Amino acid sequence: MRPSLLDPLFAPVSVLPGIGPKIAKLLETLLGTAPGREATVLDLAFHLPHAVIDRSRRPGIAYSENGDTVTLDVRVERHMPAPRGSRAPYKVIAADATGSIALVFFHPRQDWLEKVLPVGGRRIISGKVEWFSDRPQMVHPDYVLTPEEAETMPAIEPVYPMTAGLAQRTLLKGIAGALDRLPMFPDWLDPEFRARQSWPDFDEALKRVHRPEGARDLDPASPALSRLAY
């Protein structure tokens, strides 16, 4: 019989914030649950990231290398909507002290872009920079934030296996809810053995993998992943 302490982990994912019936079905597909069984909080907690995105690099526009993911502190200069009937993208020109960059959007809502990127407004943007004809651009930035919102963006962001229709931020919110439900249970490993391995507690190991401080935390030989594998 399962100890009642573990009941929060075997609850369906639909109990988590932001996960309704539609998202729960997507998670069943992503997590590979058996037909007729709803994915559980435990299933989601063990959906581990496979890589990280480092958003801590802030080189300035002119010093951003082609293909690098960077975070830039810019001021919006002007909007360049595509001509009516054209397939050209919508561009927003932004600049910092080192140069300017085109933020490129395909099929956007102009009123939404004007609200999110107001001319003259300061924004923190993060995404992959690409250079064409000696000019930098960023297609659909991953983050567009006000300076006050910038702290909500992780410097090191875990990357998870995904499924069609599921947004990364929805998955991250669900996983955060799953980690919040981890009960405080006594460690079942021999203390001396765990100390020799330099392994953290189980809940600490799981949280470290989901909230890595760098790529080293996702190395299979890392203390956190070794503990979970064992």
Question: What's the overall average pLDDT, rounded?
Answer: 94
Q: How does the overall form come out from the CA principal axes?
A: elongated
In spatial order, strands of the major sheet run: 6-7-4-3-2-5-8
* β-strand number: 9
Distance linking N and C termini = 23 Å
Major sheet, described briefly? 7 strands, mixed
Number of helices: 7
Oligomer: single chain
Task: Determine the structural class based on helices, strands and strand pairing.
Answer: alpha+beta
SSE sequence, one letter per element? HHEEEEHEEEEEHHHH
Uncertain parts: none
Tell me the helix content. 25-40%
Radius of gyration: 22 Å
Q: How large a portion of the residues is in β-strands, by DSSP E?
A: 15-25%
Tell me what the structure shows:
The chain is 26% helix and 23% strand. The protein is an alpha+beta fold and 230 residues long. The strands form two sheets. Strands 6-7-4-3-2-5-8 form a seven-stranded mixed sheet. The chain is elongated, with a radius of gyration of 22 Å.
Q: What's the layout of helices and strands?
A:
Layout: H1 21-31, H2 41-45, E1 51-54, E2 69-80, E3 90-96, E4 99-105, H3 110-116, E5 122-128, E6 130-132, E7 135-139, E8 143-145, E9 156-159, H4 168-180, H5 191-197, H6 202-210, H7 223-229
Parallel strand pairs: 4-7
Antiparallel strand pairs: 1-9, 2-3, 2-5, 3-4, 5-8, 6-7
Helix pairs in contact: 6-7
